[in-house]
Amino acid sequence: MTSQLPVLLIILPLFGGLFALFMGKGLLPWMWATLVTGVMLVVSLLLFGQVQEHGVVEYLLGNWPPEYGIGYRIDAMNGFILVVVSFIAFISTIYAGKSVDSEIPRDRGRLFYALWLLFLCGLLGITITGDAFNVYVLLEISSLTVYALIAMGKGRDRRALTASLRYLILGSVGASFILLGIGYLLMITGTLNMMDMHEQLQLLIAQGKYEKTILVAFAFLLVGLSIKMALFPLHMWLPNAYTYAPSAVSGLVAATATKVGVYMAIRFLFTIFEPSFSFIEMSASQCLLVFACIGVVVTGIQAIRQDNVKTILAYSSLGQICYIVMGFALYNEDGLTGSTMHILNHALIKGGMFLSLGCVVYKVGAIHLKDLRGLGRKMPFTMAAFTMGGLGLIGFPLTAGFVSKWFLVKGALESGHWMVAAVIMFGSVLALIYVWRVVEAIYFQEPEEEKEVTEAPFSMVWCTWILIGLSLIVGLWATLPEEAARSAAQAMLGAG
Amino acid sequence: MMIGLYGVIAKRNMIKQAISLGLFSTGIFLFYISMAVISGNFVEMGTAPIWVGEPAKAYENTAGRMIPYDNPLPHVLMLTAIVVSVSILAVALAIIVNIRRAYGTVEEDEILDIEAQEAEG
Fold first, then answer.
1. For A194-200, which contacts have Cβ atoms below 8 Å and span 24 or more sequence positions?
2. For A381-431, what is each residue's pLDDT tens digit?
3. Cβ distance A371 to A449 under 8 Å?
4. Measured by CB atoms within 10 angstroms of the end CB, which terminus of chain A is less buried, N or C?
5. In which residue ranges of chain A is pLDDT below 50?
6. So where are chain B's domains?
7. Chain A residue closest to B98 (CA)?
8. Where are the beta strands (DSSP E) in A47-170?
9. Which of chain B's residues have a Cβ under 8 Å away from the Cβ of A162?
């Protein structure tokens, strides 16, 4: 049974989503989705345990040898990401119950959960697979469902539709680029299995063959992946998409989708290409660092200029992605550890913050700065969660953000990029400003008109606090996640 | 393929953008298919592969001559990619229909105008 775990992780949400379609209007689809994601969480934890104990887990679909069939391959890196994604998925599914009920017409509920589960199927599939073309297919599954999920926000604001279409067009172009890149690699290596590809490419590079084809493949993949993970300046689709999506969707997508994009980039740059090749010979290191640094500053400033709190968070997500990219572009162990840690931390923090905003939407119905005024007294738990999350974003000591930024700065100094360290610090200052603007509105400003607002439902606040609370725990007691992240970093660097 | 990419970027009409997206992905299909072609000895083009009991690079035709066959893998990949691209187009058009209902237009410029007015008013 345990040997079948990897494929279970994909099959559960795939068929779960299908079944959700046939489940009436009531609470049933939600309960079903909660059950499925709960089992997924257990499965991914078991897998993570297996990987920590025995090293790499491989699974061959249909028992075809890897050069013909599709193989799943789980190492310390994607085991870690699997746990993060399925955990966030579980929590936000519980959360979604009430929130989705209020934002999406009742009869659409089952469609929503069907898409929701398929989206998770795509994300986990990308993470777990060891086959390059499989990545593309699952990428499209997750993107297609997320376009539809975002468009479901149309009941509240019709701009959700345009945001979703913009995301669809850019996202499809990005995915097409990835497909092209994979095509070029297939052409010269004749294989789709990532490990095979790695070996063949190393051989070709050593022999100096097909230099131009490899270059073109590399360029297409890098651009495509950058669109998918919304690296500045290819991020234009993201802010609106996050702002107008239903609250639960913003939380889930912000916490997981771009993270999986980053994971894909790490996988392609470290596993398929030789890290020394992609970072030193192709100077992806410089190129990514420059864009990430500019990105941190620009998105920070953009975030300060916004009035819609969800948009502020969206821009801040962009900044955080730049941090993560910086981490692995530094190409040393501390940097990569920092960026893996930051994937976890940011998923917890930003997930929690979007969920707490979801509570506000549930009660107040709007999330502009002026709507938040005085809420500190009326919704104390929700707003406290938001504030703690904000501190994490800034990288305040004792919060999760501090730990990962510590590693990033350490990595930057180690490789002599003191400018990058400076930008990380400056980014924290910018975060301080935009978080402060919100916090000020919450606690220190009087509302324009008195409205009766009470605390959000228990299940929603509870889920928000689990995420935020965990991020605090990670901040205080960072050994376990740090070990996991470090072994992931070593696995990636050791692969080359 | 590049015509499609250009269209995605340059056209302001959403339907045209969707069509361009379709063109773009069709271009990629052709790219994959064309790399599968094996031209053999430049006289015989590769044909469809026929399973003759063991993986062989060539099989005999009726006259007893060896004929090369194309690499089937990219074709199979493209079957999947075609399905994906059709679904993308379907979702895109569905969203465009919804946009048309909500805004009354499918021109991106006009929608931007409407949104700007809303933001002011």
1. A194/A73, A194/A130, A194/A131, A194/A132, A194/A267, A194/A271, A194/A272, A195/A66, A195/A73, A195/A130, A195/A271, A196/A66, A196/A67, A197/A132, A197/A272, A198/A271, A198/A272, A198/A273, A198/A274, A198/A495
2. 888 888 888 888 887 777 777 888 888 888 888 877 788 888 888 888 888
3. no
4. N
5. 496
6. 2-39+73-120
7. A161
8. 57-60, 71-74
9. 99, 103, 111, 115
What pLDDT does residue B1 have? 65
Fold of the B2-39+73-120 domain: Helix Hairpins (1.10.287)
The answer to whether the CB of A213 falls within 8 A of the CB of A188 is yes
Pair A234, A218: CB distance under 8 Å: no
If 0-12 CB within 10 Å is exposed, 13-18 middle and 19+ buried, where does residue A218 land? buried
| Nearest Cα residue to A222 out of A341, A313, A328 | A328
Give the model's pLDDT for residue B4.
Answer: 67
Residues in chain B closer than 8 A to A186 (CB atoms)? 35, 73-74, 77
- Lookup result for tokens 């990029």: A417
Nearest to A174 by CA among B82, B12, B5: B5
Q: What SS3 state is found at A72?
A: strand
Domain ranges across chain A: 283-496
Token match 């689990």: residue? A466
